[in-house]
Every structure is written in C-alpha cells, then in structure tokens.
Design a protein that fits this description.
By secondary structure, the protein is α+β, with helices and mostly antiparallel strands. It is built from three helices and seven strands; from the N terminus they run βββββαβαβα. Helix content is 13%, strand content 33%. The chain is extended, with a radius of gyration of 23 Å.
Length: 141
C-alpha cells in the first residue's frame, strides 16, 4: 500500500485511476492514498511420505481491492476520531464507563449529532475510581 493506511483505516473513495487500476481514497485523517489490487494464494499443506517433509499445494487464488464498506463503526473504534455527523444507536446499551461520553464527543457540532435511542440513566456509567478521586478532593459537582 502507498502511504500510511492500515487495516481498519476509514476513508472515502474519491476517484478511480483506470490506467493504474487503482482506487484513490481520502482517509479521515486527510491523507490521500492509492489502493491497488491485492493478490494472494490459498494453500493446502500435507505431509509427503516419499519426501518425508511437509509440502504445500496452491488450491486457489484471490484478487481483490482490499476495501470494505464502513457504514458504521463501534464507539470503541471511533475513539480518537472526529466526524462531521454521527448517528448514535445505544439500543444494546453501554458496557463500560465513559462509553457514552466517547460516542457523544466524536461529532464536531450538535447539528451533526443524531440519536436513534433516548439516552437513559443506565447508559451513563461512571468509573468508580474517578468518582473516588473527585470525592477525595471535594471536587463533586
């Protein structure tokens, strides 16, 4: 791959270069990368009695652009990122302290924030160590 992108990078396809057979993607970080076709083989391994060693045999091959639709990301995956618009669905609830904060704070403006579920008190989980810290310093609000 050209540029700095890794498994899990998120971006938008902005163009296709037919001559180079590449897809041009602008990552959410602002970096633009050229994504080329990737090829790999699938192997079957077996022990050859005559050779007295493990040998491999190609049983298939694949060619694809290593891209996948990213209609959604988890709250955990979104940590450290910012988005112009987000849709938050807490249907299954939250399961760790700070998760709701992370979800709500990813959007750059309230205008871009959409809640698919009503925020309930059960969605707000507080790390008891943080609460103890605030209490020990009389910082409760």
């Amino acid at each position: 791959p050209e540029g700095r992108w890794v498994n899990g990078s998120i971006g938008r396809v902005i163009d296709f270069d037919a001559q180079q057979n590449t897809v041009i993607v602008r990552l959410n970080s602002g970096l633009t990368v050229n994504v080329t076709r990737f090829s790999w083989d699938l192997y079957k391994f077996y022990y050859d009695e005559d050779l007295r060693q493990i040998v491999s045999e190609v049983t298939g091959s694949f060619k694809q652009l290593p891209l996948r639709l990213a209609w959604a990301v988890t709250i955990h995956k979104s940590q450290g990122q910012t988005f112009q618009s987000v849709v938050i669905d807490l249907g299954a609830g939250t399961f760790t302290p700070g998760q709701l904060y992370v979800a709500l704070s990813r959007c750059t403006s309230l205008k871009g924030l959409k809640l698919n579920t009503k925020i309930m008190p059960r969605h707000i989980q507080i790390d008891q160590r943080i609460l103890a810290f605030y209490k020990s310093r009389n910082l409760e609000s």
